[in-house]
Structure formats: structure tokens, C-alpha cells
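Saturday, quiet lab. Running sequence design on the C-alpha cells for the scaffold JK sent over.
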């Protein structure tokens, strides 16, 4: 081997790759050996630089070019893509300890030296050695000077001549290739070099090829703006999960939104109902934002949001203050309910104003008359968790719109949106677990993703530890227990009537067992 140009033999290449067990490090070393890429070029590679369909690697910078990926490099990158965490960081190679970030040039140089020593290679293994190895093998395969210069990203004739001279020297046949294997291969019209893996491994990779996982972080995230239109999300500075913002985004509610809008435009008050955590408040705030923006364009009255209807006098004060904020007249300090009602009647705008009032289930019976005045004066979008029979004369005034749990696809979109700032090792596992335990309830989805917000990288173990009470199924066995108890009592009477002492005792034991089971069931619940 020439002292002027150092490179690895086939045996050293094989030993180096066998010593590399980590999928990321294996992909890094394989890329150096099969593309001759520069250190800064590999460090700057992004997810979008890999063309999986055409098996090409797009290198940017002063030496911009497309490098062909042979099957060995393609398989190595595909395996790494499956292990790479889902993260907002778009660099192709990331750190695997501590905070997830792009792999530094220093770390790359360190891992090359580490595996070189582990493989027992006498000379220091670095990027220059691997690049020299690629260049010599490339020309030994029959690449022309023009082809080699294009792939290597150089125009220096002296360097090219050194590589060609090393490839033509006697040691090449014994150290790198034999005359029978020297040939010119092409991939997508580009010269490349052969696979250094064993024939069995090559055969298995052809029969069962590794499919790359195309990361969703390679594409810009889309957020839905307050006007309902999708807009590109620039790189976020957030370090934790994205919490749901009522004014920003909504998932899977197109049908109820259309229905609510239609009713409000007809000046029909709407009552939004649904179980706890279904997203009623979220939707009400979202609509108040969207509809207000839409009505301002048409010079119409806005939607005004209130978080509670009680105390009702306080609600009237808020309505009076927000109804006409530019008015010179103000309600009297400590005005009575009657005075506030008269003030609202006198200052009400001719344009139809919609009041969005949350937590309507808190209204007291004594406040119904005052609230009916509000309902007869304004169109209301009300939100309630329960429909109390005591307030039925109030509910009669509304058209009800019930929210149901999300369907599967909107639930997946919500998980993706909330977790886009997290670094996730196995996103599919996260998605499956949250869908299963949350019962597709928006609040439960948000809470479960939030449980992972303080971790730098989320492993499958952490994903399996997230939990939500919504996913616990309770079954009411009361009727079954009563039925079995009745049978036991009846059996005891039958045994008593037939003078069956054994049957009487068995029935007693059965009743005792049912009683104990019922006790423990209640304790567990």
C-alpha cells in the first residue's frame, strides 16, 4: 500500500462494518465508503436529501451533486430511517443521547476512530481514509476520470491522477478487487461500486429488501389558521409539546361547525352538548374567533365569549361592557339587575350579536328569568356538559348540537399536531397506544401527549407507561349479581323443602362467595 495514499483493503472494510452495530453509525460509515462524501457534506445532510425512489443522495453546497446509492448504502440508510426518532430536527443524522440534535463533525470523527480501533485496524480511521478507499475502488471498477471527478466533487487533476495510479497498481487486485470482479456498474446512469457484503447477505437483501421509513418531519407541518386555511408552520422554537390553542386549530369537527354556523346565521340559539373532554369549550372559542373574523369583513356584529353564566349579575355587567365599548355612557356602579337589563336594552346594537356562554349547567333556578331575558335579546351559542331537567324551560329555547368522539383519522391528525415538537423513537407505537387508551377523546389525547413533554427523546418504554383513566372500562355487574343471588336464595328454599341438607349448605356457600366477590368488585372500582 502506497505511503502517499492510504486506503482500506477489502478485509479491513469488512472488519470495520462488522464492528459497527449501531444502525446510525453503520449508515454513516457505509455512506463514506460508498459515496466518498466529504465530512461537512454528510453532517449537513437533511431528510429531504435522500431520494428513496431513485436511490440517490442529493449533496448541497459548493460541490452540489447527486450521488448514487448502491444496495448496501440504500439498505443501511433504510435501517437507520426506521430507528431514527420522529423529531422537528430535519438533519438526517442525529445524536442518540441527551437532547436530540444534528450529529456534529466532531462526533462523526470520534465514531470513525472508535470503530476503527474496535475492528483492529492499525492505521487511524478517519474521513480522508474512507474517502480515499472509495476513490480507489471507484477507479478500479473502471470509472473514467470525468465520471470520478463528478462523483468525488473535485476538479484537481493531480488528486484524480493519484487515485487512478493507486487503482492501477499491483496491490489493488490483491487488497481490493480481483480481475474477475473488476467491472463497471451503473445505477440510474451513474457509476458506482459493488457491494462489499457477503453473498448470503446480498441475496437476503434482494429477497427481503428493507423498506425505508419516510419521516413526516421531512415535510413542513401544516397548521390551520384562525381563518380555517392551512398555513405553513415555520420551524418552531418550542421545546415541549404544543398545547391546544382554541384560536388556532380544530380537528374532525367540520359537520357540527357547518350546522352551528347555519343556525347562528338564522339567529337561532344553539346548545353545544357532549361528555367531559369532548372539546366543547375548545370548539366554542374557535368559533367565536373564526366567526368574529368573518363578520368583521362584512361589518357585522362579533361573537362575544363568556366563560361562565354565574353570577348572572356579573354576566350582565360583562355584556354591558363588551356590547358597546366605545359608548360614552356606562352602567351605573353597583347597578341592580333591573338597571343592567334596561341599560342593555337601551344600548343594544342593531346588528345581531351572538353571545358564546360556557358552562350553562351552572345556572341556578333563581336566575332563569334573567337568563331568559338575555336569551330573548341575543342569539346565544351555549355550552353545557349536562342537561338538567330543572332547567328544561331554558333548554327548550335552544337547538341542540351534540359533539361525539373523534373519528380515527382526525384523532391521528391531532396526535401528530400535538407531538410535532417531540423526538419519538417509535411514533406508530405512540399513535396506537393513545388511540386505544383515549377512546379518541380530544382532552385525553392532549393529556397523554402532555405526559411526554419533559423528555428529550421518547423511547418505546416511556410510551408504554403513558396512561389515562378514560381508557379504563367499567362494567356494571349489579344485575348479574342480583340474578345469581336470587338463584341461590331460591335454591336454598328448594333444598329446604326437599330436605336436602347438602344442597342447603352449597347454596349458603354460593351466597357467601357472591357477597365476597361483590365486596371486592366495589373496592376495586
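Result came back. Writing it out in full:
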Amino acid at each position: 500500500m502506497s505511503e502517499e495514499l492510504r486506503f482500506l483493503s477489502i478485509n479491513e472494510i469488512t472488519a470495520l462494518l462488522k464492528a459497527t452495530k449501531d444502525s446510525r453509525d453503520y449508515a454513516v460509515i457505509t455512506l463514506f465508503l460508498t459515496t466518498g462524501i466529504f465530512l461537512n457534506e454528510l453532517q449537513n445532510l437533511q431528510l429531504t436529501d435522500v431520494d428513496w425512489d431513485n436511490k440517490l443522495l442529493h449533496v448541497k453546497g459548493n460541490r452540489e451533486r447527486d450521488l448514487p446509492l448502491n444496495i448496501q448504502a440504500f439498505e443501511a440508510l433504510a435501517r437507520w430511517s426506521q430507528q431514527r426518532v420522529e423529531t422537528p430536527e430535519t438533519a438526517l443524522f442525529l445524536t442518540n443521547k441527551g437532547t436530540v440534535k444534528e450529529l456534529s463533525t466532531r462526533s462523526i470523527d470520534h465514531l470513525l476512530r472508535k470503530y476503527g480501533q474496535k475492528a483492529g485496524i492499525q492505521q487511524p480511521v478517519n474521513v480522508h481514509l474512507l474517502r480515499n478507499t472509495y476513490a480507489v475502488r471507484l477507479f478500479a471498477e473502471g470509472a473514467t476520470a470525468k465520471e470520478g471527478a463528478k462523483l468525488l466533487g473535485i476538479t484537481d487533476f493531480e488528486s484524480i491522477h493519484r487515485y487512478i495510479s493507486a487503482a492501477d497498481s499491483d496491490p489493488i487486485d490483491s487488497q481490493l478487487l480481483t480481475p474477475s470482479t473488476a467491472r463497471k456498474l451503473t445505477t440510474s446512469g451513474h457509476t458506482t461500486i459493488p457491494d462489499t457484503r457477503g453473498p448470503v447477505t446480498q441475496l437476503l437483501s434482494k429477497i427481503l429488501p428493507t423498506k425505508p421509513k419516510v419521516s413526516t418531519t421531512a415535510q413542513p407541518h401544516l397548521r390551520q389558521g384562525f381563518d380555517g386555511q392551512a398555513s405553513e408552520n415555520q420551524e418552531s422554537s418550542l421545546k415541549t409539546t404544543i398545547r391546544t390553542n382554541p384560536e388556532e386549530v380544530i380537528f374532525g369537527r367540520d359537520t357540527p361547525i357547518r350546522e352551528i354556523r347555519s343556525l347562528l346565521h338564522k339567529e337561532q340559539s344553539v346548545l353545544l352538548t357532549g361528555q367531559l373532554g369532548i372539546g366543547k369549550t375548545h370548539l366554542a372559542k374557535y368559533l367565536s374567533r373564526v366567526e368574529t373574523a368573518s363578520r368583521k369583513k362584512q361589518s357585522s356584529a362579533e361573537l362575544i365569549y363568556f366563560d361562565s353564566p354565574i353570577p348572572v349579575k356579573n354576566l350582565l355587567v360583562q355584556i354591558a361592557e363588551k356590547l358597546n365599548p366605545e359608548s360614552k355612557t356606562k352602567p351605573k356602579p353597583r347597578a341592580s339587575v333591573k338597571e343592567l337589563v334596561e341599560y342593555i336594552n337601551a344600548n343594544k346594537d342593531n346588528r345581531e350579536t351572538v353571545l358564546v356562554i360556557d358552562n350553562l349547567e351552572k345556572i341556578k333556578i333563581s336566575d332563569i328569568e334573567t337568563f331568559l331575558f338575555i336569551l330573548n335579546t341575543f342569539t346565544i351559542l351555549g355550552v353545557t356538559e349536562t342537561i338538567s331537567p330543572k332547567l328544561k324551560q331554558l333548554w327548550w329555547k335552544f337547538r341542540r348540537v351534540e359533539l361525539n368522539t373523534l373519528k380515527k383519522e382526525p384523532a391521528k391528525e391531532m396526535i401528530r399536531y400535538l407531538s410535532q415538537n417531540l423526538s419519538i423513537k417509535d411514533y406508530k407505537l405512540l399513535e396506537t397506544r393513545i388511540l386505544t387508551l383515549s377512546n379518541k377523546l380530544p382532552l385525553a389525547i392532549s393529556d397523554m401527549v402532555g405526559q411526554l413533554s419533559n423528555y428529550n427523546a421518547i423511547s418505546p418504554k416511556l410510551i408504554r407507561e403513558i396512561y389515562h383513566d378514560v381508557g379504563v372500562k367499567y362494567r356494571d355487574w349489579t344485575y348479574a349479581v342480583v340474578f345469581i343471588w336470587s338463584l341461590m336464595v331460591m335454591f336454598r328454599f328448594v333444598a329446604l323443602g326437599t330436605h336436602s341438607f347438602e344442597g342447603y349448605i352449597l347454596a349458603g356457600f354460593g351466597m357467601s362467595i357472591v357477597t365476597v366477590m361483590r365486596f371486592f368488585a366495589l373496592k376495586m372500582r
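Notes for JK: The mean pLDDT is 81. Residues 501-524 form the longest helix (24 residues). Ask whether to fix the surface positions before the next round.
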